[in-house]
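Practice problem: 3-keto-disaccharide hydrolase domain-containing protein
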Amino acid sequence: MKKEILRFITNFIVLILMGCSSKIIPLTNANLDVRNRDIVSVNRDVNTLILNNKIGDGIAIIKDLKFDEGIIEVELKGENNPQKSFVGIAFNIQNDSIYEAVYFRPFNFQSNEKVRREHSVQYISKPEFEWRFLRTNYKGQFESEYPRQPSPDEWFKVRVKIDGKKVFVYDQETKVELLSIERLTKQISNRIGLWTGYNSKGEFRNLKIKKLKTKY
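Answer key — structure tokens:
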């Protein structure tokens, strides 16, 4: 109990100290290095990006942005399409197949089956720690339910806090912690990107970064 209280206080202080360092990241063609996806549309007025679906994972890497520890805020939109809607963020990107990611399965948000709802939020560290390996060997440790159960076809906003050892995921609307895990790899790269999974399209808007260590 004392550890939980201390962690809450620490997180609260960090968020206050970082409140003035938020930076909005423009989601434009010129600002993105897109891998295994095509940009369907960009709307600068509402800072929104849409990526198409293709076989395999896709990443839209943010150019000229160095990020290792801090907070990422973003609004995401998938669809109610079972096994074909995976949207999230990738970080510690070394190349197209080596990175960490936090992503969501919107088609599970409101499922009538509890076991599916418990697979709504996921952390992975590719290539060694894919979702299937983690679910088989560390059941329930690297994925979780989304208690608010957003509509699978609507926007939802999340906050991901990353430090050298852990990753915390929050629902921005309720401030509820969705996932808290120990990272499965060391920080090597300072690149981050918007991520879509196998055969998935994705929509992203209002990406904000709050840094802890390195400078822009």
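Discussion: The helical segments are 2-17, 114-117, 131-137. Students who identified this feature from the tokens alone can consider the problem solved.
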